[in-house]
UniProtKB/TrEMBL annotation:
Residues 1-125 form the DUF7147 domain. InterPro entries: DUF7147 (IPR055571). It comes from Staphylococcus equorum. This is DUF7147 domain-containing protein. It holds the Pfam family DUF7147. It comes from the Bacteria.
Length: 129
């Protein structure tokens, strides 16, 4: 099964698209994952919607906003709250994990491979088949 990220932007319009994806696809969503780079100077956080695999397990999509919000602890932020409110509205499980920042990777695809590995290690997505 192919598992890949579909990258959205970092701005407010992308946040509205992200929330709309939740609204219209909530039955297909497995969970929402925050990837925090809390040890990095800027403390960016990325957020992804992890979909259930397609029928017959050919593909699993994950929509991601890379470095789209600031680390929400101890002070929360509006983007973090908006996503959490939307997830709560549709009873979607939220998970969080600390990761390396995207800036430490030479290429965004390498970063995505790293995140997929993290998700597999956490058993939040199925193993490679």
């Amino acid at each position: 099964m192919k598992q890949s990220f579909i990258k959205l932007g970092e701005g407010l319009t992308d946040l509205f698209e992200f929330n709309t994806l939740i609204e219209y696809n909530f039955k297909r969503i497995d969970h929402i994952v925050y990837f925090h780079a809390a040890t990095f100077e800027k403390k960016p956080s990325s957020v992804a919607i992890v979909m259930h695999p397609t029928s017959e397990n050919h593909f699993q999509a994950m929509y991601i906003m890379v470095n789209a919000l600031n680390y929400p602890y101890p002070n929360s932020n509006k983007k973090f709250e908006m996503i959490n409110e939307q997830a709560k509205l549709y009873n979607i499980d939220i998970k969080e994990v600390d990761v390396q920042p995207s800036e430490t990777f030479h290429d965004i695809d390498l970063y995505f491979n790293y995140l997929i590995s993290v998700l597999r290690l956490q058993r939040w997505i199925p193993p490679l088949q």
